[in-house]
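Worked Example 4.2. Consider the chain below.
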Amino acid sequence: MTTKPAAAAARATVYGYPRQGPDRELKKAIEGYWKGRVSADALRATAAGLRRANWRRLADAGIHEVPTGDFSYYDHVLDTTVALGAIPERHRVAVETDALDGYFAMARGTQDVAPLEMTKWFDTNYHYLVPELGPDTVFTADSAKQVAELKEALALGLAARPVLVGPVTYLLLAKPAPGVAADFEPLTLLDRLLPVYARILADLRAAGAEWVQLDEPALVQDRTPAELNAAGRAYRDLGALTDRPKLLIASYFDRLGEALPVLAKAPVEGLALDFTEAAAGNLQALAAAGGLPGKRLVAGVVNGRNIWVDDLSASLATLGTLLGLADRVDVAASCSLLHVPLDAAAERDIEPQIRRWLAFARQKTAEVVTLAKGLAQGTGAITAELAANRADLASRAGSPITRDAAVRSRAAAVTAGDARRSQPYAERAAAQRAHLRLPLLPTTTIGSFPQTGELRTARADLRAGRIGTAAYEDRVRAEIQEVVAFQEKTGIDVLVHGEPERNDMVQYFAERLTGYLATQHGWVQSYGTRYVRPPILAGDISRPEPMTVRWTAYAQSLTSRPVKGMLTGPVTMLAWSFVRDDQPLGETARQVALALRDEVTDLEAGGTSVIQVDEPALRETLPLRAADRAGYLAWATEAFRLTTGGVRPDTQIHTHMCYAEFGDIVQAIDDLDADVISLEAARSRMQVARELAAHGYPREAGPGVYDIHSPRVPSAREAAELLRTGLKAIPAERLWVNPDCGLKTRGWPETRASLENLVAAARTVRGELSPS
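Applying the procedure from the previous section yields the following structure tokens:
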């Protein structure tokens, strides 16, 4: 059947776009600036060139309205903090002295001043800098960045739409500033903040903006009546302004729920909604609310977070249904394309037919344009595109890559007993204390050590064929020797081998498991200048051979102290990959868990007595709505226990989590039944330790005392103070001393100094506990 053209021509747009450039030019320029090799003017020129290239490519592809203001040197929430003048007092002098250096100081800290706290952007692996607010916060408008970037796009002759974090989401993401009462609610500052948004909107209108997009993803979460009333008041007041552009309120990542009628009734001109499977219910809720008469609806029908080609026919059907619910329906991806790589066409190592299953940012842009054309002109205008899309979908569905009968049979045979340790924790703990003989407040690290220039060069030379495997492995052995020797000399109690052979904590394992695809250029921003290449989980998962045993055993041969085996857990293997969308996530998690269980068994058989299974993504992947969480946590915690449930009682199982809000998953952390958990805690001043204590967490824990995402070296006194704070919540016999996270991104000089101070702090506090 041929779809009739829409009454009003649909247009194509996107909410945001990857920032890094085809060869991560932005990362290289920023890091060059930090090292003094790139001037501020050169950095700005690189950024401007990338912005122009992005906008031109979007426009050339058929995007009718390009986003501006979403480009960032580090983080768009930090950019909003600057635009609102909400600079923490400790950073104010630095910002006033040099705006660029002050900006990076807020992000990374300095030796003397701590950075802003960093945590995950909703349920993604992107990290944002948390605003710090208090009752004395004074907001002042700084529209310079937004206005300048809008003018850049307009000068190219493009229709442009500035994008800002909305006022309600900004306040809901914020935390009380240091020294402010913990029960202070930043949302109480809304009436103080709205005039600042009004000023920025007026400045953007004066600069030529017809529309401005205000992102309000926090409204897809469960919100209280007071929060919903605040959202209604915010957009009633902003909508009543006379000196402003048209307003598009954008939501994404989930269904808008109770906030939908609030925003639908607001005196604004447009609403952007997610209509992918992740936000099931938005279409019915929109219809129930009476649609958006007289308003613009931007329909996010192309999944902006995953990399599979869209089902164009299904999306067109959704768009057709939406036509009767708004005066104008435009087409978009479901969220910013920041969360996917740039271009699937660059992946020459992936077989061409399989590559056609993939849609990165450029391919998703083309899909959005195709859908807008089909909606505006009818399906007859996109016959060839629809036929090619159907062929690609059929190719993937029928591929033998996606199904392995042996894997499915093994997963189906799993019993509840497979996901349980043979003895309760109290009995295991006694066996582990007798076996490991660790001191009070044992010290360890999270796993990785700095990836040196020599190691990176060796890895590149191996890929390029300039050296052979033997020469590369000699380099790896040398790195392990250095790491083990340093840890022994420093006095660390439980050692790691440093992971020199690993490129990334997920990618390394994905490359050794069947069912995964690896990319060469699929970089996605995690935070700041940290980019990762999430592997693609395309089919059923199995482990052909051991993945970590050899190097762990080598490290153990160099020392009499225990060396931890290091694995990435099943939930994180899913969360930090692009997962298959053709079966429930719980089924995929069980397959990954069984593959990792084999690795745990082999590590233990090889003499490894401490095994860490990292799950930093457990909180990140938590559904945004409370009603959806129990089912997720059931399969997520089962997958972890299935990975670790087969070991002996005296084998100590660790897990690790970082940079997330843990308070609402403490019960799930308990349900993992790990013997020891290490967590990020330095920037939040041991908040997670207090949360564990409030829950009555019965096992051992290591809340971090060294913030590894900042180049500053914490003093021994500072680490000791954090440790003493941790002891107020966790008894000494159950408290470990460790950094927040792995050390791969740090340099050796700061790592040495920081870990030496960490061990010194542990000894000091240990002595205070046992003065004899």
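The two ends are 86 Å apart (CA to CA). The chain has a mean pLDDT of 95. Compare this with Example 4.1 before moving on.
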